Amino acid sequence: MSRYYLTTAIDYSNGDPHIGHAYEKVGADVVARFHRLVGEDVHFVIGMDEHGQKVAQEAAAQGRSPQELVDELAIRFEGVWERLYISHDDFIRTTEPRHKQAVQALVRRIQKTGDLYQDRYEGYYCTGCEAFKREAELEDGRCPIPPTREIAWTDEENWFFRLSEYTERLISHIEQHPEFIQPESRRNEILRLLEGGLDDISASRSRVPWGVPFPDEDGHTVYVWFDALPNYISAIGYPGAEFGDRWPAALHVIGKDITRFHCVIWPAMLLSAGLELPGTVWGHGFVKIGGGKLSKSEASLLDLDHLIDRHGPDAFRYFLMREIPWDRDRDFASVDAFLQQFDERYNSDLANDLGNLLNRTVSMALKYRDGVVTRSEATDLDSVIDSALDRYQATMREHRLHEGLDASMSIVRAANGFIDAEQPWKLAKDPEQRARLDDVLAALVRALAATAVTLEPFIPTKAVEMWRRLGGEELPSLEHLMAELPETLPPRWDTVLFPRAEIEAESD
Questions:
Q1: pLDDT tens digits for 342-375?
Q2: Is the CB of residue 40 less than 8 Å from the CB of residue 283?
């Protein structure tokens, strides 16, 4: 069984989880579930980035210790991921002893190569990004991500990493391995950055006590990005022997705003340490709503618990993956527009198309054949199913998740059209059409079975419920889908898969 190690960016501990966090975690979870569905041994890691100047400042503002703050936030984040059925295998926190050990071991290994040296840093620092900034990167003296972030002049003695020495090696690797940075737009951005040359970067901070102590250097902590990025190896046992069982990662899922750290700094650190580079770094886009300027009342409507409660966790997962392409941004004009689109997508796709298809098919199979599905010859619907399954696997393997979801839902659309064309209720009245009715009902069950399996990465609990309503038990792998089709439907089911929602307008 092939192994597939998948990570997301670890979330920074300075505020509650929001839609952007959910979009990334749900998308990565879809990838993890898909690779399990095709029989791979998946190890999926998420976590929290808990050190740095910004955390210390936020804790001080609240009159508490940094550890108290990050402990509370970790509980909040984990609670939301549990509600959204995120199937991670590990939740790494950078304040854990195992992470501290890994970071210090990696720093020592880089030191031995001669790639670390001491010097004085004088320049701008953005606490919001936890990043040093060149003057050319600023807009009107502020950080452009977002422009509300203020910049502070910093003057301190640090350890530096010879990042400039890795420019050509990184360009060469990216050109030889175009899959390393995806989608293509992100790869082009990084290549333009590299072609402009790289500066050495700080590897330590001498004025930020909240962090991993820099090895053998009193008064210094590891710079927060030098601390955060190694979570991908600390979570799998670095520097222990078991680390090699999972590394290199198959996929790092990150936001497009931190591609420089993951596609330049992190691979340079790994090259310096003599470690393999990850297979792919996927930089997803952003969910944008109202230009990012929301009132408190508008922001409250986008609280994740509120959104999950609106139509349930499966529906929220579906909406994120359906409406927001995995390779670019999606901009909603306003909070109202976002919520209205969520409501419309829920009723049209899930309640009407998918839910009604399941209800109609199960009801007809029970009414006309006592729930017994007879094996039959292939129909026109089967060719649609076969084509959709091929498209689904191809797009999912290329991380085009929105296209994979569309492939799955194309089966639903075709099956509803098949019912309208074949009119099983008329076939049931004609004894001479008995065989055709069996073919139609069996094809519809095959369509629903294929839909249930392919939708499992997107709507995991509802997909399992669909499978059980068809008479199945354990959801099969894609490989064994057609060999494990249910043949007898259960006599009744008391709940509706997706009850149609009566939508009321939101008020501020």
A1: 999 999 999 999 999 999 999 999 999 999 998 7
A2: no
Please state, in angstroms and rounded to a whole number, the distance separating the CA atoms of residues 15 and 464. Answer: 34
pLDDT tens readout for residues 210-258: 999 999 999 999 999 999 999 999 999 999 999 999 999 999 999 999 9
Distance of alpha carbon 401 from alpha carbon 253, whole angstroms = 13
- Asked if the model's pLDDT at residue 148 lies above 70, the reply is no
* Alpha carbon distance 393, 57 (integer Å): 46
Distance (Å, whole) CA 447 – CA 357? 10
SS3 string of 399-418?
CCHHHHHHHHHHHHHHHHHH
In sequence order, the β-bridge partners of residue 118 are: 159
Question: pLDDT class for 150, splitting at 50, 70, 90?
Answer: low
Give the type of residue at 93: R
In the chain, what's the furthest Cα-to-Cα distance? 90
Residue 239: cis peptide before it, omega within 30 degrees of 0: yes
**C-alpha pair distances (Å), 476 with each of 49, 450, 472, 481:** 36, 10, 9, 6
Beta strands in 13-112 (DSSP E): 41-49, 90-93
Q: Please report the pLDDT score of residue 138 as a whole number.
A: 74
| Nearest CA-CA partner of 236 in 198, 276, 267 | 276
Residue 452 near residue 466, CB atoms below 8 Å: yes
